[in-house]
Amino acid sequence: MKKRTVLFAAGLVAVVLAMLATAATAGAAELFRDPTRPVDDRVRDLVARLTLEEKAILLNHKGTTIQRFNIRADQWNQCINGVKWDRPTTLFPVCQAMAATWDTNMVREIATVISDEARAIYNRWRRDPNAPGEQKGLIYRAPVINIGRNPYWGRNHETWGEDPFLTGRMAVSYVRGLQGEDPRYLKLAATLKHFAVNNVETDRKKLDAQVPERWLREYWLPHFRDAVVEGRAQSLMASYNAINGIPNNINRWLLTDLLKNEWRHEGFVVSDLGGVETMVKGHAGGTMGYVDAVAQSVMAGCDFSDKEYEENIPAAVREGKLTEARLNDALMRVLRVRFRLGEFDAFESVPYSRISPDVIDSPAHRAVALKAAQKAIVLLQNRDRMLPLDKAALRRITVIGPLANQIVKDKWYNGATSVLVTPLAGIREKVGAGVTVTYAQGCGLKGGSKEGASIAKAVEAARDADVVLLFVGTTTDVEHETLDRKSLKLSGRQEELVKAVFAANRRTVVIEMSAGPLAVPWIEKNVPAILQAWWPGEEGGNAIADVLFGDVNPAGRLPHTVYVSDEQVPLRDQYDISQGFTHMFLRGEPLFPFGHGLSYTEFKYSNVRLSAEAMAADGTLTVLVDVENTGSRAGEEVAQLYVRKPISRVKRALQELRGFQRFALKPGEKRTVTFALPGEKLAYWDTEKHAFVVEPGDYEVFFGASSADIRATSRFSVTTPK
Question: Is 0.90 surpassed by the pTM of this model?
Fold first, then answer.
């Protein structure tokens, strides 16, 4: 009884102190509403006025409105490849396809369109709170920049491939496109997902990733650092998994020591949905209560979460498990972002308030979606120059396949759409009334004995066609969040369909429409022409037709390695990539290498030169190479720069991507491509010094059209700095 009395008294004192603090600030001028004052001063003023319960509410991303200050609950949304809304927005190719453009300017243009539409939705609501449609805030949970190390991962379509350098450059461009360029106001707040080492769906809420220290620093984290330090992303989402025994939601080293102290991140960390619950029901296996899970999460550096924060933060503070200083820091971080979004200023004073709802899925934005889909398509194979097709020589085209008459949308993160141009529709529009286009599905994605008749019909339709365009791949029935793929092979009876159709008509082009890579060695060996078209967005059908018929010269490049078979892929729980993962350590020959992609023209590399034959370890080397279009068509090339340390005290990669540029050349045109190679990009993580170290000695630089198609090489030396 005595203990209860003491606890009650302590609670009463806390309430009285909160009331006194509120009364003390109530009469003072509300500095937080003064737009002329520095943001941090305004945020501190508001935090000082809040009760403990109000602070907890504001750290629940679905909390209620704080009525006395009219601070509404934060409203967040998704925009991975288009804004999720209950009305149509522009649907772009998936992020794996954006990565295949190898074009940072294109990615920034896409993200700018997405942020325009997101702001327009917000502006519509602010101008008319009663307007039909969902109301959306300005904190957006994108981009997903986890590495696609695991080719089976169900979320590969959300990622930017297997390489941290490529992912880092794409992430910086995407974040800048979302957040805008205004020196004072954020357009949106980007949230990097999922921090970190998240690339498995199976048991994801209790998974413990065992990662060697070196590869954690060299492979699993550099792209996050780029997006935080260079891109200045305002938020990161802590992933469900643990790293080396410590769940990320309570991983102080990850969320505070590394992110906030070493990388100087000023924004906030948010848990993944149900992140606190995974601590209680997943990792802890029922041995941890909600108050402890919330207290440990906030103390570790997770600033923002679900209803568990609102329900348990007051108790965590009163029980001494959560300090008010750390609570206030979390609130400062969240509110600082909201102030920079302009929520506490006059609506008209924010420059982004002038973006009209008329831009949403406008013709101009659809044109960007078309360009993105065109740039993303990869010409994997083109024996005997089967492509591009000559429209004038065709009278009958047969279009076949389970992906021929649909555009795949992610059921988790895409919203409503307007017109989706399927491949069949795009091809019919391209060839016009003078060419007969016949369609047969052939089979589905899941297989079954009843599909034999459908395959037979497709074979009959293909037999007398001038060309067969055969669309195979995956949909969200095969790979999506919570569902990892079981195999890299085509699902169902799709390969059987390809073999039967090809036997009937050897003038067959296979178009792969998948998110992750497909191991199809029979198709590679036998079918003369193969395109990778991804999940290409609302204008995908038009883009595919443009490439097939030569109106667009393809220049997409693979952002991942395509393995020959499942047997070539290391175990899914092997996080040491030096054991055979990715282009950096792959054992044997791939089906298609990282960076691969053909063109309808040819490019020649020559005259590699360096700014110096040697550089100090803290210097920057300028590397130049001439690239010439030696073919008869205009086209775009993607020059790729790789570096290798042939002799090292530690195991180093076969090659490391350290630069890339996409550019257009007319027939006969030549240009000099210049890369800056900072000394820090030669470093490896020294596990004894716990720091990046640049090793003196000889290095090789490779220029090429892929990681396996090297066209020009050179060497230089690194000397020990004086």
Answer: yes
